[in-house]
Amino acid sequence: MQNSYDALAARFAHGFVYEKNQGIGFYKACSLELPGLRHGFSTREGGVSKGPYASLNLHWQKEGCAADVLENYRRFARGAGVAYEDMVIVNHAHGNNVLQVSREDRGKGFGLPPLPFCDGLITNDPAVVLVTSHADCGAFFFYDPRKRAVGMAHAGWKGTLMQIGLVMAEKMQRAFGTNPGDILAAAGPCICPKCFEVDAELGEAFANAFEPGVCRPGKPGKAYVDLPQCAAIQFLRAGILPEHITLMDACTFENPAMFFSHRRDKGVTGSMAAFIRLC
Ligand SMILES: [Zn+2]
């Protein structure tokens, strides 16, 4: 099992490209830099929020000043090359619920009432921009170039353990006739295996759900979990080909200049956002 996984893992792409547009920087997977698709994962630079939220905080609930977050999202949209009005944001619940959305859902969570609780979104409608927000949690980008459909998920440790990536691939199959072998998948910046310390019991739950290699022992009673590897394993289980998987390999915890980190900043921090859209 370990050996066969290692052979598959050797075929994953690693790394990212970093590009700035209109003062807003985005991490992107090279494999998704394709005609007909836009995607990216923001950094904390280029916004108007202050103090621990400085500066591009994209989480409505984390600071008192909604006007600042609104201005940050306007800048995010400009940098992403999308219309502010076309965005729809997940309504995080740290679960594995994935919703199909379309142009009728534009603006939900941005002034219009939010979607029902969900951590993943799928669509085949080029009029809508899927948005998720993150501060150590994984961002899963899915693109089916054959059926022209996309998916975007917020995968915290709970969503990772509940295999939201597997759920998202299944939903794309049912909704759009997606063949998982066609999906191009990427996992965005998140807390890395060196920094993600958990209670040993939780580490064991990850080892049982995925494979022993995702958990390594730490201090007494503690363990370290490899969330990107857990992401890749669920992508493989969904039928995604190893050569269609990219892990961006950027650690949110270790890079305070670029990223908010819930763990590092002890909860008093902002969020980055990820987006994907057909175009
Ligand atoms: Zn790290």
Could you please describe the fold and organization of this structure?
It is a single chain. This protein is α+β, with helices and mostly antiparallel strands and 279 residues long. It has a single domain (11-192, 246-278), classed as CNF1/YfiH-like putative cysteine hydrolases, CATH 3.60.140. The chain has helices spanning 2-9, 66-80, 157-161, 164-176, 200-209, 227-237, and strands spanning 13-14, 17-21, 24-28, 37-42, 87-89, 98-100, 120-123, 129-134, 138-144, 149-155, 184-187, 197-199, 215-217, 222-225, 245-247, 272-278. A hairpin with a 4-residue loop joins strand 9 and strand 10 (149-155). The longest helix is centred in the first third of the chain and has 15 residues, at 66-80. The protein starts with a helix and ends with a strand. The mean pLDDT is 96. The chain binds zinc ion. Residues 192, 194-195, 251, 253-254 line the site of zinc ion.
List the helices and strands and how they pair.
Blueprint: H1 2-9, E1 13-14, E2 17-21, E3 24-28, E4 37-42, H2 66-80, E5 87-89, E6 98-100, E7 120-123, E8 129-134, E9 138-144, E10 149-155, H3 157-161, H4 164-176, E11 184-187, E12 197-199, H5 200-209, E13 215-217, E14 222-225, H6 227-237, E15 245-247, E16 272-278
Parallel strand pairs: 1-15, 5-8, 6-7, 11-15
Antiparallel strand pairs: 2-3, 3-4, 4-16, 7-10, 8-16, 9-10, 9-11, 12-14, 13-14
The structure holds zinc ion.
The site of zinc ion has 6 residues, from loops.
